[in-house]
């Protein structure tokens, strides 16, 4: 876990700890640097998680995500680093992070990484009949 980046993260207690529910956070403006060229890489991130005891505070998350602005890293490495940092701090029941990186050289890159708390199993989804 990189101390420079995680110093920005803050948490609060999960207000519904007895319930499995999903928090989805869209981050449409993420920037880091290409480690080979130094040119900016732009991405959108989607963070989805089922909290356990803690939730991430959103302004702190924004500061954390902007702290990558001057960091050179491959898409795969940066997405995994973000998951590692946030999952280590929150210890969620489940977390999935997807980085949707803008086109570079005619190629789009999507990187999805997951964390699952040992022993946690999601409940089966409920299928409702279509009433229309």
Describe the 3D structure:
The chain has 132 residues and is an alpha+beta fold. It has one domain (3-14, 21-116): 2-Layer Sandwich (GTP Cyclohydrolase I, domain 2). Helices cover 22% and strands 37% of the residues. The chain has 3 helices and 6 strands. The protein has helices at 3-6, 58-66, 75-90, and strands at residues 11-13, 23-33, 40-50, 54-56, 94-104, 107-116. The strands form 2 sheets. It has a 4-stranded antiparallel β-sheet, with helices on one face. A two-stranded antiparallel sheet has the order 1-4. β5 and β6 (107-116) form a beta hairpin. It is globular, with a radius of gyration of 16 Å.
Features:
132 residues, alpha+beta, 4-stranded antiparallel sheet, two-stranded antiparallel ribbon, 3 helices, 22% helix, globular
Mean pLDDT: 92
CATH topology: GTP Cyclohydrolase I, domain 2
Q: Helical content, roughly?
A: 10-25%
SSE pattern, N- to C-terminal: HEEEEHHEE
Strand content: 35-45%
Distance between the termini: 49 Å
Principal-axes geometry comes out as: globular
Contiguous uncertain segments of 5+ residues: none
In the CATH classification, which architecture applies? 2-Layer Sandwich
Please identify the top-level CATH class.
Alpha Beta
Within CATH, the superfamily carries the name GTP cyclohydrolase I, C-terminal domain/NADPH-dependent 7-cyano-7-deazaguanine reductase, N-terminal domain
Task: Provide the fold topology.
Blueprint: H1 3-6, E1 11-13, E2 23-33, E3 40-50, E4 54-56, H2 58-66, H3 75-90, E5 94-104, E6 107-116
């Amino acid at each position: 876990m990189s101390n420079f980046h995680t110093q920005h993260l803050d948490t609060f207690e999960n207000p519904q700890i007895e319930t499995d529910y999903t928090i989805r956070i869209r981050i449409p403006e993420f920037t880091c640097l290409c480690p080979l060229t130094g040119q900016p890489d732009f991405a959108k991130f989607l963070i989805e998680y089922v909290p356990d005891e803690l939730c991430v505070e959103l302004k702190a998350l924004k500061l954390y995500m902007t702290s990558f602005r001057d960091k050179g890293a491959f898409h795969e490495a940066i997405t995994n680093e973000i998951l590692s940092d946030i999952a280590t701090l929150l210890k969620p029941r489940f977390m999935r992070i997807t980085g949707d990186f803008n086109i570079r050289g005619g190629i789009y890159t999507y990187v999805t990484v997951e964390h699952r708390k040992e022993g946690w199993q999601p409940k089966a989804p409920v299928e409702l009949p279509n009433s229309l």
